[in-house]
Amino acid sequence: MSQAADLPLWAALPVAMLLVVGAGLALAGSIGLVTLKSFYDRMHAPTLGTTLGIGSILIASMLYFSVLQTRFVLHEILIGAFMVVTTPVTLMLLARAALYRDEREGNPDAPPRRPPPTKD
Amino acid sequence: MKRWFPYPLIGLGLALLWLLLTESVSTAAFLLATALALAGCGTLLRLRFPKARLRRLGSVPGLLRDVVVEVFRSNNAVARIILRPSREDARRSGFVRVPLDMRSPHGLAALACILTATPGTVWVDYDSTDGTMLLHVLDLIDEDAWVRIVKDRWERRLMEIFE
């Protein structure tokens, strides 16, 4: 953005801080995706980026464009709402696929199978 | 009114979504937003989407505040776990089966969103025959403590709103 120099200092500081926090969380999530041991553990790592990480970056974007265009720019709220609603679906699909395979193959990662429901 | 807007909240949400996306409050935008709300509600009606009955909306702000606090706290906790692999051996992750009393599909969906939005917990499976939910926890210290956290902190309050 070429107009970035027009941003007053009081807005530039929080925008920069929020961007660094958001990017840092996304980086931590990616590191976790590489370093954590099991599939189920790795599933948790990217949620850092999809919650507080994306939240900080969206707030920074709202602040930046609201100050530069001197009007409220709010459609980032929609991105946040869609992220909150859609990530559980993806994670559930991934987790259930892994669980299904682990149960079929009898891997030790899977939770102990529950006794079949009794008839009475 | 009831006939045209069988899902008032969802219709209102769709209309607001359109107005936010286009960032305008002109007559054309309002007309398109109304059309989108009508089309969305019509589709849901065809799909026989269960209607949500919201009660006690007064407890929603408190719940949202607690969710935000919990998101901050658990982001911090999970980032620490990832960036300090030296303690990796002491940490134990695992599954917890939580018996739920909530049966409202909307309440369960909200619970899934909350649990996924707080890093460190992932909703894995829900068994509708006995109403138990399988949760994976990254830093599992005590199974019973997690059952209590899910039931007392979230489920009880969601049931106040959705059931």
Automatic annotation (TrEMBL), chain A:
An MF annotation (GO) of this entry: sodium:proton antiporter activity
The UniProt keyword set, sorted, is: Membrane, Transmembrane, Transmembrane helix
Q: Where are the transmembrane segments?
A: 12-36, 48-67, 73-95
UniProt xrefs under InterPro entries: PhaG_MnhG_YufB
Protein name, entry field: Cation:proton antiporter
Automatic annotation (TrEMBL), chain B:
Per UniProt, subcellular location reads as: Cell membrane
Question: Known NCBIfam families for this protein?
Answer: PRK08965.1-4
Is Amino-acid biosynthesis tagged as a keyword?
A: no
Q: Record's superkingdom?
A: Bacteria
> How does the record classify its membrane topology?
Multi-pass membrane protein
Q: What is the source species? A: Neoroseomonas oryzicola
- Keyword rRNA processing present in the record's keywords: the answer is no
The protein, known as: Na+/H+ antiporter subunit E
Keywords, comma-separated and alphabetical? Cell membrane, Membrane, Transmembrane, Transmembrane helix
Question: What InterPro entries would the database entry show?
Answer: Cation_antiport_E
Q: What is its main location?
A: membrane
The entry's family comment says:
Belongs to the CPA3 antiporters (TC 2.A.63) subunit E family.
The entry lists its GO molecular-function terms as:
monoatomic cation transmembrane transporter activity
* Gene Ontology CC: plasma membrane
